[in-house]
Design brief:
453 residues, three-stranded mixed β-sheet, alpha/beta, 37% helix, Nucleotidyltransferase, domain 5, 2 domains, seven-stranded mixed β-sheet
Length: 453
């Protein structure tokens, strides 16, 4: 049986800080009205990369720094140099520091708010803190592999913390939560309600979707990401791959792009339409967009690493200068850019046999028409749902089953798969390959060596 409860979130969408108590109040409001009646276990998923500094008494030192906070960019670069470069970080924790990660936020705190940094005796992330509050703030603080793998001071490869990196960032020691296994419980409330380990929203969503080895998840937001399930953690000194752990004991290497749907919206604005209108226009063109190629690097780019570049429209000829061809080029450019990101994972031995396509733009007919051929594999478009919440519920069921002896600790419970459209490349594989070759030739001409070619 599935029940749902919602509460408005008072934190502004563009805010980079939040009082954690607000999350707790919203959680209580969402669960009001008997929602938890008969519930025996709870799992918590929350945004990744939030950082909550606590003092020696467990009180919040300052508002939480959220995952969208970019102020720590300089701090991240400082940390890279302080440890001896990208390779040193890749060997230590599997990835290179970036602004969203707690390790960079700690460095920013030490440099910009030294009094708050000095008071910081422990560090938690949002889901860690919520679990701790639900359990009544016990002496034992916990987290899970998924959230820990995004901190920049815990390695998904070795399965252990690097406390020295916390000291490098903050300037002194800070207590870190115990990392639980996927099916372990964080504890039980006085009322007997079991609380599972919890996890970050990305890991919870993957668990809720039921992705497994051979699956990749392509997320279409303003920016984009490609995440795949892999049997081992990947250490990457290039900075292109962030090596997360998942909620099952496997790994989730992720490659990000800075430009996805923002390229579609920009093109739609240029043509005086919206995303639906842009999709309709694109379907009036044909694969290859009559030779038009759009490199969608509008805000610089992260994959390939071109932070100061701009987008490029190439292949203009009289016959290609029509709205429908530009519209098609925007969709093909976005998808080819994400296919490039997928190739970064494939080059490291990650197998991709099926792609889950997420985000509102995944519903656009032009995306669905082009994605299977460009990605070169089956594409699954799940029905929109709160997959992070479903993943947290699945984790709670797993932990409860293990505690009762009815489920094995290394075998997640069976779960109803997401309702979805399944799209096959069919006879269009050669067409998709030709589109990618045209895109790649333009990319390599404009940005030679962008991918080490």
């Amino acid at each position: 049986m599935l029940r749902q409860g919602y509460a408005p979130h008072p934190v502004e969408a563009k805010s980079t800080e939040a009082d954690p108590q607000v999350w707790l109040l919203s959680l209580g409001e969402a669960a009001a009205g008997g929602l938890l009646e008969g519930v025996q276990a709870i799992g918590v998923s929350a945004q990744q990369h939030g950082m909550i500094p606590l003092d020696a008494h467990g009180s919040v030192v300052r508002p939480a720094l959220l995952g969208n906070d970019k102020r720590a960019q300089v701090a991240a670069a400082d940390l890279v140099d302080a440890l001896g470069g990208r390779q040193a970080w890749a060997e230590a924790v599997g990835s290179v520091p970036t602004a969203p990660q707690p390790v960079a936020k700690l460095r920013w705190l030490a440099r910009n708010e030294p009094e708050s940094a000095q008071r910081t005796a422990a560090v938690m992330q949002p889901h860690d803190w919520l679990v701790w509050q639900l359990l009544g703030r016990p002496a034992r603080r916990t987290t899970d592999r998924g959230a820990a793998s995004g901190t920049g001071y815990w390695s998904a490869v070795t399965g252990s913390y690097r406390p020295d990196l916390v000291e490098l960032a903050l300037g002194h020691h800070a207590a870190l939560p115990e990392v639980l296994g996927p099916s372990e419980a964080a504890g039980t409330t006085p009322e007997g309600l079991l609380i599972s380990a919890g996890t970050g929203e990305t890991m919870a969503a993957a668990f809720g979707l039921g992705v497994a080895a051979g699956d990749a998840v392509v997320s279409l937001g303003a920016s984009g990401s490609v995440m795949a399930v892999h049997h081992e953690g990947l250490a990457d000194s290039s900075g292109l791959i962030t090596s997360f752990a998942d909620a099952t004991g496997m790994h989730l290497p992720v490659v990000h792009t800075l430009n996805a749907v923002r390229a579609l919206r920009g093109t739609a604005d240029l043509l005086g339409t919206d995303l639906d209108g842009l999709s309709e226009l694109a379907l009036k063109s044909s694969p290859g967009s009559y030779g038009l190629v759009l490199l969608p690097y509008l805000e610089g780019e992260r994959t390939p690493q071109l932070p100061h570049t701009a987008g490029t429209l190439s292949g203009l000829r009289r016959e290609s200068m029509k709205p429908e061809h530009l519209a098609r080029a925007a969709f093909e450019g976005m998808l080819c850019s994400l296919a490039d990101a997928m190739d970064v994972l494939r080059a490291r031995g990650v197998e991709v046999r099926r792609v889950f396509l997420l985000g509102a733009a995944a519903e656009l007919p032009a995306v669905q028409a082009a994605a299977p051929a460009i990605f070169g594999t089956q594409v699954v478009v799940p029905q929109p749902a709160e997959y992070a919440a479903l993943g947290a519920a699945r984790q709670a069921a797993w932990a409860l089953g293990v505690a009762r002896g009815t489920l094995a600790p290394h075998s997640p419970p069976a779960w109803q798969g997401a309702a979805a459209q399944v799209l096959e490349p069919g006879d269009e594989l050669a067409v998709g390959q030709a589109v990618r070759q045209q895109y790649g030739a333009t990319r390599d001409q404009i940005h030679p060596g962008a991918f080490g070619a």
